[in-house]
């Protein structure tokens, strides 16, 4: 068996659940993005960094029996979960491949579209990732990305000093691990260099209140990240407790606003 290849937040049950929450709150935005990009019945779509299959399942439903979803993912545990999810929903129009985007070839070609969410920000070489995606998209096809353009827009209003420290800690650890949180500008440049024309580039940032569905997205990330960092011995328990306390107190105030990290939605067409 392949040894499990983990991630910034791991691949344990809590992270799988968090990814489900993340997908559910972003789902309306994503479905509209795919519709505008032209994904529909009969489309052949590459899901890059597919995780445990939440987006792949939606894509399989959209493209239908005449279409195909090729999902690629480096975590064996997530691949197993994704295959089970899609099969459990009655889909047969998919492939799920365990591979590393930095070392393995993509098992696809002539694709109508690719979908890539929060992957370029983690890989060692976004340029290599874009080379591989460009090679498998047909002329006239589209590459779709959701990547951060300004991660540090994440903040509480009124300002929360502990959350601001948390954001800096996250960004530092991200870069230390070899990624770049604010990778969207580089993705735009790399796409243009590889013969793509950017059709849409839309900033996606939300200002939410306690009780809003989107509040759960940063809330679950903060919780999982703090726990993971504590397990790794990278932060002090007292500091983690102060971040949790500040965020919990903010969540009890109806007037609190939470601004989410700014994502750039990119739809780029491969020129003929």
Notes on the structure:
This protein is of the alpha/beta class. Helices cover 43% and strands 23% of the residues. It has eight helices and ten strands. It has helices at 13-37, 54-63, 76-88, 126-136, 161-176, 184-193, 216-231, 237-251; strands at 44-48, 68-73, 94-98, 111-117, 137-150, 155-157, 196-204, 207-208, 257-259, 262-270. The N and C termini lie far apart (42 Å).
Descriptors:
272 residues; alpha/beta; 7-stranded mixed β-sheet; 3-stranded antiparallel β-sheet; 10 strands; disordered N terminus
Radius of gyration: 19 Å
- Strand portion: 15-25%
Describe the largest sheet: 7 strands, mixed
The residue fraction in helices comes out at 40-55%
Which structural category do the helix and sheet elements fall into?
A: alpha/beta
Output the strand order for the largest sheet: 3-2-1-4-5-10-7
Indicate the mean pLDDT.
94
Shape: globular
Taking the alpha carbons of the first and last residues, their distance comes to 42 Å
Please write the string of helix (H) and strand (E) elements. Answer: HEHEHEEHEEHHEEHHEE
Low-confidence stretches are 1-5
Number of helices: 8
Count of β-strands: 10
How is the secondary structure organized here?
Layout lengths: L12 H25 L6 E5 L5 H10 L4 E6 L2 H13 L5 E5 L12 E7 L8 H11 E14 L4 E3 L3 H16 L7 H10 L2 E9 L2 E2 L7 H16 L5 H15 L5 E3 L2 E9 L2
Parallel strand pairs: 1-2, 1-4, 2-3, 4-5
Antiparallel strand pairs: 5-10, 6-9, 7-10, 8-9
Summarize the structure.
By secondary structure, the protein is an alpha/beta fold. The chain has eight helices and ten strands.
